[in-house]
Write a structure and sequence with these properties.
This protein is mainly beta. It folds into 2 domains: 190 residues, Alpha-Beta Plaits (2-Layer Sandwich), CATH 3.30.70; 85 residues, Immunoglobulins (Immunoglobulin-like, Sandwich), CATH 2.60.40.10. 15% of the residues lie in helices and 37% in strands. It contains 7 helices and 17 strands. The longest helix is centred in the first third of the chain and has 10 residues.
Length: 283
Amino acid sequence: MSKKWNLVVDVARCDNCRNCFLAAKDEHISNDFPGYAAAQPEKEHSWVDIRHKERGSYPIVEANFMPVMCNHCDNAPCMKVAKDGAIKKRSDGIVIIDPEKSKGQKEIVDACPYGAVYWNEEKQIPQAWIFDAHLLDSGWTKPRAQQSCPTNVFETLKVSDAEMQRIKGEEELDVLLPEEGTKPRVYYKNLHLMNSCFVAGSVVTMIDGVDECAENATAVLSQNGIEIARASTDVFGEFKLDKLAPGSGAYDLEISQGSGGKYSAKVEVQEESLYLGTLMLEG
């Protein structure tokens, strides 16, 4: 079975240094690669785009970052609207927008559900990240986005489709917009940091008449009698119950610390993460 290129992006490792964005700029601005891509404009194009998401509220709040680029889909929407062979899917999985045949075909930009195809107004062509195919074809084993990343956000894999699906399952990888059915070759680890909600709080217990942080208390979130998430409080008494779907509704929260008391409440998850404030164990 033939091997094809795939990219794994770990959202938890991205700190917004933007080296990958700059590497794509450095590689493609003012550089033509015939058969692969025309030069990228100096402005307005982000072939490797860093998107961000803030979750929670003070004092439990976080900012996460996610590189987004052409997903090199096996069922690529851009190919469906392209005319005259303007886009080709290579046998190694990489999608290439032909810089000559695609002239004037702005509909290719609009077809991408990820917003990863850009319009070059000067050259009148659509353009996107080419997986650095010109470098891979010359012997490189990874694109410049990975080569330039100091925090190991990216992992390039050239494996069979069956092997990639095995890796996807074992490492709990996700893809963007799975409902689109595009069969992308860019996979994400820890994608919940961008598309899920959490419920968090600070737990306090009374010790010798003094309010103290409740370390190692157990917080359990249930819905319709089924446990959804479980976490232990840290040394500051803080907990975070993650990977909750936005708008998923009412949950039962139970917190306990052995003989140190209990706390229970109903919580409602709407579109944003919740910080419940200071919660006192009683009983």
